[in-house]
Amino acid sequence: MGGLEKKKYQRGSATNYITRNKARKKLQLSLPDFRRLCILKGIYPHEPKHKKKVNKGSTAARTFYLLKDIKFLLHEPIVNKFREYKIFVRKLRKAYGKSEWGTAERLKDNKPTYKLDHIVKERYPTFVDALRDLDDALSMCFLFSTFPRTGKCHVQTIQLCRRLAVEFLNYVIASRSLRKVFLSIKGIYYQAEVLGQPITWITPYAFAHDHPTDVDYRVMATFTEFYTTLLGFVNFRLYHSLNLHYPPKIDGQAEVELKPAEGKEYAMDSESYLEKLSALSASLARVVAPTQEDDVEMDEFPVEGETAEQMDARRKEQEALEKHKKLFEGLRFFLNREVPREPLAFIIRCFGGQVSWDKSLCIGATYDVSDPSITHQIVDRPQVEQQVVGRYYLQPQWVFDSVNAKLCLPVADYFPGVLLPPHLSPFVTEQEGDYIPPEKLKLLAMQRGEDPGEESEEEEEEEEEEDDNDKDEEEEEEDESEKEEEIKLKKMEEQKTQSNKVQCMAVGLRLEDKQRLEQEQQSEEKRLAIMMMKKREKYLYKKIMFGKKRKIREANKLAAKRKAHDTAMKEEKKKTKKARRA
Amino acid sequence: GVGGTGHPHTSSRGVGNWGWGLCCNRADGCVAVLMVARWQSTSCSHPRPSHHPASSSVLQDIRNTVGNIPMEWYQDFPHIGYDLEGKRIYKPIRNKDELDKFLEKMENPDYWRTVQDKMTGADIKLTDEQVDLVHRLQKGQFGDVHFNPYEPAIDFFTHEVMIHPVTNRPADKRSFIPSLIEKEKVSKLVHAIKMGWIKPRKPKEDTPTYYDLWAHEDPNSILGRHKMHVPAPKMKLPGHEESYNPPPEYLLSEEEKLAWEQQEPAEWRLNFVPQQYRCLRAVPAYPRFIHERFERCLDLYLCPRQRKMRVNVDPEDLIPKLPKPRDLQPFPTTQALVYRGHSSLVRCLSVSPSGQWLASGSDDGTVRFWEVCTARCMKTLPVGGVVKSVAWNPNPTVCLVAVCALKQVTWHGKGDYFATVVADNSNMQVLIHQTSKRWSQNPFRKSKGLVQCVLFHPIRPYFFVATQRYVRVYNLLKQELTKKLMANCKWVSSMAIHPAGDNVICGSYDSKLAWFDLDLSTRPYQLLRHHRKALRSVAFHKHYPLFASGSDDGTVIVCHGMVYNDLLQNPLLVPVKVLKGHALTLDLGVLDVIFHPTQPWVFSSGADGTVRLYT
């Protein structure tokens, strides 16, 4: 008796959450404004642990925000700006309605604007936090920069996105921080490592967009508004960390080179600057001229609790990284006009290569097709007419594959018109038990410096195929040898992964029987033990085992598919050979 | 038709005002009719009557006075208008047919310049000048030959300031005194500024757009302000199957593609179909690119976030570490003997205290006696009804078997008393009988529910009664309820008691086996869900720490159930063997299990009409 009556849902988790509508009413904002505020401030709904409790006993589907978040929004200065803007629009409409042009002009001059600097700082208190969240910002900016200059959003936004994206690309080139690239059917993925943070972004292929009707561009524009602010600040900081000018300046020497020789202007001065920058072929000017001392070797301090082995591994990794950064150093590329210029120029420049293209294609071409010092020409046509001696004609996939493999791959597979080897994703790291495509196995072997000898074998095969008088037996042998090769590769891989499977080579029948019995007994023991598991644990165990089994099933399916494909290919090869012989 | 009417101009030769209509038939591409209506006829075509009054009688002035009206109005009349005297002007008699017209066209050299005057209906031959005029108009030139359209223009107003004003009017007074209207306007503006309604133009901010925002960063600051912050997960990185040129095994076959298309978008594992392109040039734009970015945006601001702990355990660690069954021997492992003979399901079993004989009761209305070691049926006893329960007197000196067709019969450990259960819902369900005195008694005054089975405590004067959900323990001496065990199951089927008397197991139709420790609590110490189907019977071994359960799934599960004398140590339950053998008939498997009194053997009777011995 006595005391206050405890009411339900007036304490605990029910009071920590607030529904969206209530939050909106508390903030006195319209839904679009609330949405904008949430996007800009990075406020998102939470899924409460006990939804029914939070929902005051109801099970209706509602989105909940944390009350703390909403209270925090109450003091946001931008909310007032939203209101001001609403009033401004109303006044402007009134002035137009009364045909008071002078008032309208005056109102327009005083258009309320807001800045997002403090929000960026607040959402990302440290620079590393901002870098961690840069993926979406970059992808969005790259997408917006490809939009047409009319229609979907403000031209200024598009131009700003383009500028920021180009600046970021230039930074990646200057810092040589690109690590992985991937040609997917959706677009081109890039991964750079900036201050130890992997940053992945995707750019669409350069085609006109078919603008969907079921996409709310206002939402995207709001996101982009925030992302451009974020990216601008990040770019500023990144450029300064490399002692580069921001906004970027093209190196004086390069600028002279970039001047069109004919003396006529390429574009308006304001535009040509961005164009030159986006050509990605010129290096950027530094605030302080680089001196030799910059390249002083870093002293190494052993980290506490690190064994010599780990240190060694670390050093080796560092060396590999340095080597990777200089992958295309000393190579001179020429891009034909049918290959996508910007991605390739970006990638090649990121790894120290020199690159040029046809003068009529884009500004910033530094040398001509006829330059004898060109080592690689990137071609995406079935065949090349006048080939110049002394350079490789390669398909663009070679550049991407080489970057991912961290070494210049043999060029033979990538000649124009040749059936390309599969392009693998560099983002996949196979765990034990996963399916690994044979191409990846080959690549791993190559990276370790082991020559699997596959190529010579294949070449031989080619030669032999051309020979008309080879016998079927030989063929069989060849197949065998190929298979052995495959097995060898697999074995090497297994040894590497140190799979501790006991492989008994010669097992007698009795031994096997005994083993089988023992195994059976073990499995039965396990079964009985599983029976004794608690309900919750049993559920978890079954779930884990289900996942594992599914994974194995999928891997097996892929392997079987591959095998079927390979045999089919072989059959076809044989058939064509026979047909040729006949 | 295009008509330019009333183009007045004066000419030096005194040609009067002309009004003409120019009708042209565009389809023919040539002028069809030229109608010239004259207010004043030219001197050259028709000599004016005033000049030649003498010839006025000969050449009548037949000017029509109807004016500029559509001439169709006179279509139905014989006349076409009125002349100056007010007399009718009759239409000329026209009886030219097509042939005449054609002949005239062929013969008359001036046919092309003959037009019909609509006002009078007469044919007029155009003069050369008129033809010229028509030609000029057709070309879009001025009608007058001598008109010069490009005469030098004279500027009346120049930009140069002249000494003389254009007008000689003196300036108004209002141009010297301040305007009241303007004053009013200005005062309104001043008032508005004073009141703050009009704000002065903001000065342009000249702070740079971007600067070093993180110049003074606080390394200890928390991301997201509070501990509930959940950072957005990054997007999944693409796998091999997303490549523009994936390895062939990642491409979908036809069936897989079909299956993918039939799936709901929510259940797709991949949100695209892997594709292979020969070369980079052939790769098209991805149509859902903007969609995907948009969906990501939606996820970022609309999707409720929750921190989910991922259990990262080795599944092997979850399996409890139990003593190995090998170390817990002896227990029955293999099927040794099958006792065949019954023609219907065998409901109940009982072993003689010596362990030599086995009695089994069946639905075929017989009780059979078997020799355990040889599986020979020594005696078949037709009872004449379904045998629900048999029980061998536990007293080794007396050889007595209780056979009942009611529900259950069970002996007290001494062998003097036995209890029977009847399947009705009265207070007479349970009766206790004494063989030596040959009298029965009804222990309960009131029914507590449908009694499933009853048991005597092996040592103490306790009596266990299992109803559907509870097991009640009665003290027979004090005649009171001592305990009520909650079985945590829907329907108890069977019950057995440990020979030491402190532990009870209950089997239930919802495939659970509850182990009660009577000293511990009235709730089960452990609930074992080993069987997949309903449990039919449970049994304890007299000497070995074993118990068995038979179920409708056709298996008998033998468990090691060690009970320690130390009260602090809980019983150890380990399943040691799953015995299979009985075939499922009518969805029934094992109906009864019982242990051999001395050996670690177990008998089971099944719905397939057999009794099996596992050793």
From TrEMBL, chain A:
Q: In which residue ranges is the amino acid composition biased (Acidic residues)?
A: 452-484
Q: Is-annotated flag, keyword Acetylation?
A: no
GO cellular component assignments: nucleoplasm; PeBoW complex; preribosome, large subunit precursor
List all Basic and acidic residues biased stretches.
Answer: 485-496, 565-574
| Primary subcellular site in the record, as a coarse category | nucleus
The listed locations are:
Nucleus, Nucleolus; Nucleus, Nucleoplasm
Superkingdom is Eukaryota
Extract the GO molecular function terms from the UniProt entry.
ribonucleoprotein complex binding; RNA binding
Described purpose of this protein according to its UniProt entry: Component of the PeBoW complex, which is required for maturation of 28S and 5.8S ribosomal RNAs and formation of the 60S ribosome.
Supply the HAMAP family for this chain.
Pescadillo
Question: Oligomeric state and partners?
Answer: Component of the PeBoW complex, composed of BOP1, PES1 and WDR12. Within the PeBoW complex BOP1 interacts directly with PES1 and WDR12. The PeBoW complex also associates with the 66S pre-ribosome.
Q: What is this protein called?
A: Pescadillo homolog
UniProtKB/TrEMBL annotation, chain B:
Annotated GO biological processes are: maturation of 5.8S rRNA from tricistronic rRNA transcript (SSU-rRNA, 5.8S rRNA, LSU-rRNA); maturation of LSU-rRNA from tricistronic rRNA transcript (SSU-rRNA, 5.8S rRNA, LSU-rRNA)
Q: Which residues form a coiled coil?
A: none
Q: Which residues form the BOP1 N-terminal domain?
A: 74-332
Q: Which keywords accompany this UniProt record?
A: Nucleus, Repeat, Ribosome biogenesis, rRNA processing, WD repeat
What does the UniProt entry say about where the protein is found?
Nucleus, Nucleolus; Nucleus, Nucleoplasm
Q: Which InterPro entries match?
A: BOP1/Erb1 (IPR028598), BOP1_N_dom (IPR012953), WD40/YVTN_repeat-like_dom_sf (IPR015943), WD40_repeat_CS (IPR019775), WD40_repeat_dom_sf (IPR036322), WD40_rpt (IPR001680)
Single GO cellular component term: preribosome, large subunit precursor
Q: Where are the WD repeats?
A: 339-380, 528-558
* Family annotation (PROSITE patterns): WD_REPEATS_1 (PS00678), WD_REPEATS_2 (PS50082), WD_REPEATS_REGION (PS50294)
Give the domain of life: Eukaryota
Q: What is its main location?
A: nucleus
Pfam families recorded = BOP1NT, WD40
Q: Which GO terms describe its molecular function?
A: ribonucleoprotein complex binding
According to the record's subunit comment, the protein's assembly and interactions are: Component of the PeBoW complex, composed of BOP1, PES1 and WDR12. Within the PeBoW complex BOP1 interacts directly with PES1 and WDR12. The PeBoW complex also associates with the 66S pre-ribosome.
**HAMAP family with a match to the protein in the record:** BOP1
Q: Which family does it belong to?
A: Belongs to the WD repeat BOP1/ERB1 family.
Q: What does this protein do?
A: Component of the PeBoW complex, which is required for maturation of 28S and 5.8S ribosomal RNAs and formation of the 60S ribosome.
* Protein name (database record): Ribosome biogenesis protein BOP1
Lineage, opening ranks: Eukaryota, Metazoa, Chordata, Craniata, Vertebrata
